[in-house]
Automatic annotation (TrEMBL):
Residues 29-246 form the Calcineurin-like phosphoesterase domain. The lineage of its organism: Eukaryota, Fungi, Fungi incertae sedis, Zoopagomycota, Zoopagomycotina. It comes from the Eukaryota. InterPro entries: Calcineurin-like_PHP, Metallo-depent_PP-like. It comes from Thamnocephalis sphaerospora. This is Metallo-dependent phosphatase-like protein. GO terms for molecular function: hydrolase activity.
Amino acid sequence: MQKATESAPQYEDPKHKTFRSADALGKRRIVAVGDLHGDLKSTLNVLRMAGVIDKEDKWAGGNNTILVQTGDLIDRGEDTVELLELFPRLIKEAYEVGGRVIQVLGNHEIMNLAGDLRYVSPNEPGFASAAKRALDFSRSGRFGRRLYNVPLVHQVGDTVFAHGGITPEWSAPNLHHINLQAADQLRRYAVGPNSYMRMETPPVLGIEGPAWYRGYAKDPEEIACRTLRQALNIMNVERMVVGHTLQNNGRVLSRCNNRFFVIDVGISQAYMGQQAALEILSGGIVRAIYPTGTETLSRGKGTWGAFKTKLSSIFKS
């Protein structure tokens, strides 16, 4: 089976008109951050801690860093607008120097696109009214027109990213068709607030879909890991990284022999304001980054990493 190292659509070009796949060539560093929930200050702090922005909040990852944000950028906190403006800027700045910034849809992005505002902060100053917010998240709105093109799932090298988790049902050797299906279903589903036209939630966007699923994080490990292995084998990848399921202890959760990581540690002050990011380095080294330092979670090459190294040595010999 041919290895699918990319899926699309992934990130905006500098003109914010098209989406392309982020490559995973060479010794690139992947940094992943979880749910940010409308807290600009905490977001900037965690991005500085991970070394992807500087003290002026500009891209500092250079050409060898891929930043992945695993959804739920918005809601609960009061800085939704600021965060929705921050990430397109970082996408552009990273792109211009050869780096990459990638977002995947969280369940809160999906809810806002559908006009479900149950978790909006009552003190949020960024929108004049609920009607204005709904307009901004519409397909032609200032935020909706970009969010409708954000992928539901994303793959970089031998790692897949989602907000909740990708079950075998939604797994494939190439994730492109799942993103296309999700985008099509989202456009049909998200018809605006209080609409009689709303269809039932499509499965790809539902409770067992990649943006909502919690089984890998909450099921008994024997059950979760058996299902996870099936999904990873179908996708031909080594590991999965998600947010969505809050880790109250503020630590990245590693399960299934370091093949599944949960990085929602409650970064937003709407929760606990705890800081953590995940770092994936060449050779399958995985580390958690905390204000107190780094913790190595996985040291060795995974099966795909080992295969690539062996293949490279064959071609060099």
